[in-house]
Each structure stands twice: as structure tokens, then as C-alpha cells.
Amino acid sequence: xxxxxxxxxxxxxxRLFDGVPENLELYISGNFEKKAAEQGWGxxxxxxxxxxxFPSKLDPNNSPETEIGNSLLVHSAIKGMTxxxxxxxxxxxxxxxxxxLEYSRKRWIRSNPDKDVANHFFAKTLDQCxxxxxxxxxxxxxxxxxxxxxxxxxxxxKQVLARANIRLQFLDRSNASFRLPIAKGVVRLLExxxxxHEHDRAFEVFMLVMDKHAGGLLxxxxxxxxxxxxxxxxxxxxxxxxxxxxxx
Length: 248
Fold this sequence. Notes:
Pfam families: DUF6339. This protein is mostly helical. The protein has 2 domains: 3-142, no CATH class; 180-246, no CATH class. It has helices at residues 10-18, 24-28, 33-36, 64-77, 83-86, 89-97, 101-108, 113-120, 126-131, 136-148, 153-160, 164-172, 174-178, 180-192, 195-198, 202-214, 224-233, 235-246, and strands at residues 3-7, 43-50, 78-79. Strands 1-2-3 form a 3-stranded antiparallel sheet. Helix 14 crosses helix 17 (224-233) and helix 16 (202-214) crosses helix 18. The longest helix is centred in the first third of the chain and has 14 residues, at 64-77.
């Protein structure tokens, strides 16, 4: 049964963030059930619903395969979510502290608990929301992949999540993340061009070359074949740039 997704108030977020050091035991081995009975923990997003069973299915192991599975799970389990709502820290703070606490602690609390909690249980900025928050980042992965290929987002995630730097470049560059024709073309290229996976900086350099040589093109007017040819045509320049930067 789907339930309305809840969020916390700004005051609750502020108290939790300021209180991380004194609440470390709750983050490491306890829970926030008593605190959740206080005012400001149960605000409802009536237009967004979620499957309350999904947190128990999250896998805290750190591997590309589990990241893909978790991303697909979170995105499919939350219905009605929009990018505007997904930028709201208060939504993800509640999930990380209640429904998804067990996953969040096992996945992200390591050698520096204070820092780990601050980085992965909160989401002060858009970048932190997309890249760092334990649950929000999974939703954003699924959102981007579903926009690029609604019928097979797993296919997209296999490429985008293959390396952390590939994901970062996708999200940081609006031309790659949100102009669908080029995003689809880049995924097709990633499936074919092994060099883009061989070096951590290779995809970054390729995207820089694309920005320089093709940033002003109207990809929406091009066919898939034309986009594929244009992307492939920029590979030699990208490889030369990579060699000049990192190998010479």
C-alpha cells in the first residue's frame, strides 16, 4: 500500500544538524523514534507517495551492481516526486533518520562518523542532494536514467554508474544530463567505446572536448545516426587532449 511521503520542518533539520555530535550513538546503533514523536516530524506531501516496504530491500553493499539496484528501487518506490520536490532537504532528512536509517548507517557511516553523518544524512545544497545524501542520490540516479531511456533505465545506469566521474560529469553538465538527444547518444557511445571506461579522467576530457566543439549544436534537429557520428568524430581529439594532459 502506498502512503503519503512525509518530511520534517526546517527547525527539525536545524536541530538534527547542530546535534550530530551529541546524537552519534543514535546514528551508529540507535534510532530516532522518540524524537520523531515531537512536533515537525510528520508533515505530509500529499502529491507524493511511497512504498513503505522499500527501505528493507535496500542493499548497503558498495558495488556498481547494488548502486544500480538501489537506484531503480528508490525511483520506482516513490511516486509523484519531481526534481523541484527532490531538491528539498527536509524530505531526505526524514527518510535517512527514520525509514532508511539502517541502510544509511551501514552504507555511509565509516571511520569519521561526524563527517559521514553530516555529508550523507543531510542535503544543504543541490550538489549535496544529488551526490551525497544517502537516499536522494539514488532517486536522482533513477530519475536521470528514466529520462534518458524510460523503457530500460537499468541499461543507462550500467554506463552512468560505471565510474564515479562519469556520473559526476553527467550531472554537472546540463547539456549531457537534460538535453535528451545528446544524453542518449553519450550512453550509446559509452556502450561501445571502452577507452571512456579505462581511465578515470577519460570521460571528463571527452565532455570538455564536446563542450568546446559541439556545445552550440542543436542536437534536437539531428538524427540518432548523425549524433552518433558527431560524438565518435570527437573521440580522437579527446584522446589527444587526454594524452597531452595526463600521459606526456
